[in-house]
Amino acid sequence: MLTLTSPYQTWAHHLPAAAKMAALAAWTVLLFHLATLLPLALTAAATLALPLSCGASFAVVSARMLRPLWPFILILALWHLWTRDLATGSVILLRLITAVTAANFVTMTTRLSDMIRVLARIAGPLALIGLPPKTFALAVALVIRFLPVMLQRMTQIRESFRARSLRRPGWRLFIPALLAALDDAECVAEALRARGGAG
Amino acid sequence: MEKTLALVALFAALIAALGFLPAMMLPGGVPITAQSLGIMLCGTVLGAKRGALAVLLFLVVVALGVPALSGGRGGYGVFLGPSVGFLVGFPLTAFVAGLVVERWNAPVLYSAGVGAALGGMLVLYPLGALGWALMLGKSLSEVGVFLLGFVPGDLIKVVLAGFITRAIGQMRPSALLSRAG
After folding, report:
1. Which residues of B touch A119 (CB under 8 A)?
2. What is the ipTM of this complex?
3. How far apart are CA A74 and CA A80, in angstroms?
4. What is the reported pTM?
5. Which of B66, B87, B141, B147 would best serve as a mutation to test chain A binding (most A beta carbons within 10 A)?
6. Which pLDDT tens digit goes with each residue over B8-33?
């Protein structure tokens, strides 16, 4: 699975993507304006109820997506235990966890193609500085299409290195990977031109 | 136009693919994530503008929910987390690294190394620290200490960026777009 969109269909999957993205923006602004513990705790409870409302397995995946935050949570907790300023520490931690949970909720319940469509609409004004939204959407689609290709290419490079040497490839992987990307870009550009160009 | 689009998109895909690699461990236990080295190389190989665009496009794809940031992170959440300063700094890293290689006509080894150091450390560290300070409610001097942990790994990456960029310039001079004029 290449995206973080949850395969379980929940009620939130059926809401329009633009509405969810706008709500997230508003929610986040509100969150960073709350500076006292009680309103923040209520907001946090409301936010954490969102993944829970979508079933246990959804909530578990949502909790797992918070894993990269653990080192920060640990350092902050120790810091504020040491300075005996638990109130400030709780505010910062609550805000962090709530913001990331809310954002992940939108990510998990919105299809990639819907998100690209909204993004292309938002990017409309970029046409003024010479970047038509169609080109932008094409670029995003190209990245998503080529990510597995690049992964496969890197596996190939690593395997052929292993076939020749007992050492691990390490940074030696970069030179053939960069050269391959440069060469591939040449072919993709030609293919795009042959099909009527990107503009 | 098509050439620029293809280069930017494919290098964004390459940075994303590098995020799926496990961190390389150097003797002494210093972890090197392939991704940040990839971001420096985007600048030194593609040049300032195209390098920065590729990194920006990579960040857009991450925001859309592709878990391509090292450690399997993705979605809007990463822009609300403590590391947001580094994410904002990444396109600037590529831009500055590329600018140095384009403008400073020294041998590629040196200009790419210096460019990677300026972009990947001098520009990125203050932004990263600012992000930590704002998101964690600390002062800059309090979080600054944690940056020291990055210095050894990043110094090695700077040297690698120099050597890798030079190797690409030697093997295929026309491919080194930052020096193509």
Report:
1. 60, 64
2. 0.87
3. 10
4. 0.83
5. B66
6. 999 999 998 888 776 665 555 555 67
